[in-house]
Amino acid sequence: MASMKKAAVDATPGNNPLLEDWSGPFGVPPFARIEPEHFMPAFAHAFADHAGEVAAVAADRAAPTFANTIDALETAGQTLTRVSNVFDLLASADTNDDILGIERELAPLEAKHWNRILMDEALFRRVDALWRERLVPHQELRVLLGVDVVRDHRKTVLVAKCAAQRQRQRCLAGSDRPSDADPQGRSVAHERNSLLYCVS
After folding, report:
1. Whose CA is closest to 194, among 47, 36, 76?
2. Quick check: helix, strand or coil at residue 83?
3. pLDDT reported for residue 24
4. Is 108 helix (H, G, I), strand (E, B) or coil?
5. Is there a contact between 54 and 115 (Cβ–Cβ < 8 Å)?
6. Sign (positive/negative) of CA torsion 53, 59, 63, 64?
7. At what angle do helices 97-118 and 39-59 cross, to 10 degrees?
8. Which element (helix H / strand E) includes 87?
9. Where are the domains of the chain?
10. Is the separation of the CB atoms in 190 and 103 below 8 Å?
């Protein structure tokens, strides 16, 4: 990444290349303009957008359907996906001290974000109702989503049980564990499943 260096940059959403429409060839991100300082503001913006989209699904007064629950959840968080993909690519292929520092700062925030979604009781009730009613055959769900619905539902049930335990408040508030790094300095915190923050 040519411009991955410390610099004073304007990382506000209106001037953040991570939050722009990528109009270049094949929709490739503008790597030459991305600085480390752009990532945390972009993640903050993306987390907020995604949380709002998920909250809207959970608060929907209409009876749960595949379209207004499963499909809505799967298509939510597009900005977060874009920002995460760029960051994960750089963290894997072109990392440096700045990126490692962002990984350590980001890990508990990311876990807190996903824990709130996994432990949203209203959201779980909608997903669980669809699962119990079997409105869409399992095989069709698997084809449509590209995931193992049985596995994902069992994980959701596990998290729902966790939500009834004392650890729930710590999970929702964010883990108090510091992000770890291996002896070579590579952060391993982002590899930890967010579920571990509440069931371990």
Report:
1. 47
2. helix
3. 83
4. helix
5. no
6. positive
7. 10
8. helix 78-93
9. 13-20+31-199
10. yes
Query: Could you report the average pLDDT of every consecutive run of 10 residues in the chain (200 residues)?
Result: 45 82 90 95 97 96 93 94 96 94 96 90 88 62 48 55 53 52 41 37
Give the pLDDT of residue 189: 40
Q: Which residues sit opposite 187 in a β-bridge?
A: 181
Sign of the CA dihedral with 185 first, then 186, 187, and 191 last: negative
Q: What is the separation, in whole angstroms, between the first and last Cα of the chain?
A: 37
**How is residue 50 written in tokens?**
């995604």
Give the model's pLDDT for residue 16: 96
Tokens of 96: 């440096």
Q: Tell me 187's DSSP state.
A: B
Classify each residue of 17-41 as buried b or exposed e, where b means 16 or more C-beta atoms within 10 Å of its C-beta: bbbeeeeeeeeebebeebbbbbbeb
Burial class (CB in 10 A: 0-12, 13-18, 19+), 6: exposed
The model's pTM is 0.70
DSSP symbols for 145-168? HSS-HHHHHHHHHHHHHHHTSTHH
